[in-house]
Amino acid sequence: MERSSQFISLSGLSGVFVGITALFGALSIFLFKLKHFSGRYYNDKVYSGELHLKGVELSEFILFIIVSGFIMLILSLYFAYFFTNRNAKRKGLPVWSSSARRMIINLSIPLITGGLFCFVLIYHNLIYLIVPATLIFYGLALINASKYTLRDIRYLGLIEILLGLIASVWIGYGLIFWAIGFGVLHIIYGLTMYWKYERIADRA
Predict the structure, then answer these.
(1) CA distance 15 to 37
(2) Cα angle 67-73-79, degrees, rounded to a multiple of 5
(3) Domain span including residue 191
(4) Three-state SS for 33?
(5) Tens-digit pLDDT profile for residues 147-183
(6) How many domains in the chain?
(7) Which residues have CB under 8 Å from 136's CB, separation 6+?
(8) Would you say the pTM of this structure is higher than 0.85?
């Protein structure tokens, strides 16, 4: 009964490709402004809003991050849909079911809230809190959605929250924590889920 109320078609491979996308996104941001992510990047420099990064205004750098994040979001959604749809067809299950709708709704509420909160942080020039906020709200979203899909996702959510709290202390290394949380952890989680639930089906 419990299994019938869960969305079990979520693909581990989607997590792997989402993680790879996040790593490429983090790399592009790192290459755009290398100095921003050094250990010498302190709170007061971020908060003042007066920092110039190699002749580029901070506002331009923020715009680059937003555009990069949007591109990563689109690619991640595509990979999530593609591999999940493939997994659902192999299992003979509908990809868009009542359990899938419940999962998406419960995932979206914390994500949308976190996204709006990040824009509030940008408005107040609290740029150094964006990375911790994205990790924490994403972790909360995963935990909230875990009631309607594979419960393993709850552990990923707990680790994301913990990583976000750590990132809120060592803010000079925000991009590194972001790459670990959205890149490395997704790849590890995706491979684990693939090995646990999908490997046998792919061999058949």
Answers:
(1) 26
(2) 140
(3) 3-203
(4) coil
(5) 887 778 899 999 999 999 999 998 878 888 999 999 9
(6) 1
(7) 114, 160, 161, 164, 165
(8) no
